[in-house]
């Protein structure tokens, strides 16, 4: 089954990449962009067929590898 | 209003970052991970209040800056 993980910097953490995108959009003439935050999305194809087991496995993957939980938050979707 | 953009490498394009994540997950003992693809997620806060206008603006931003449409596909969600 497929799982999608969103990893974003926590709100309190400065996001220079997002700031750079915001500045670049302004320079290109796009107005009214008030804030930009950039994160990662990771799509996984899993052999696991049970949704709850898949969610638990992906959560463990996030905590061990995919996200730095000190500065990043993550969200797991299983479909 | 808020917009979320997902930018992923097209299926035909090799994703070495995703492959590296897959290999690392295997090395950490996570089994049954068949494929991994990694992309970007960009969250924008817009001054625009009309959903259709916001979607059009964000699509233009993707085509001009946020995605490289030669090798990447993007998806816009407005909420």
Characterize the structure shown:
- 2 copies of one chain form a homodimer.
- Chain A is α+β, with helices and mostly antiparallel strands.
- Chain A has one domain: Phosphoribosylformylglycinamidine synthase subunit PurS (Mth169, Chain: A).
- In chain A, 35% of the residues lie in helices and 37% in strands.
- Chain A has 2 helices and 3 strands, in the order E-H-E-H-E.
- Chain A has helices spanning 16-27, 51-66, and strands at 2-9, 33-46, 72-78.
- Chain A has a 3-stranded antiparallel beta sheet.
- The longest helix of chain A is centred in the last third of the chain and has 16 residues, at 51-66.
- The model of chain A has no long low-confidence stretch (mean pLDDT 97).
- The interface between A and B is medium-sized, with 32 and 32 residues.
- Strand 2 (33-46) of chain A pairs antiparallel with strand 2 of chain B.
Provide the descriptors you would attach to this structure in a database record.
homodimer, 79 residues, Mth169, Chain: A, 2 helices, 3 strands, 35% helix, 37% strand, elongated
């Amino acid at each position: 089954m497929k799982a999608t993980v969103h990893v974003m910097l926590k709100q309190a953490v400065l996001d220079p990449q997002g700031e750079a995108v915001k500045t670049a959009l302004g320079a290109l003439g796009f107005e009214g962009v008030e804030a930009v935050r950039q994160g990662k999305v990771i799509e996984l194809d899993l052999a696991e067929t049970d949704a709850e087991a898949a969610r638990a496995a992906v959560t463990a993957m996030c905590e061990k590898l995919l996200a730095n939980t000190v500065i990043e938050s993550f969200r797991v979707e299983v479909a």
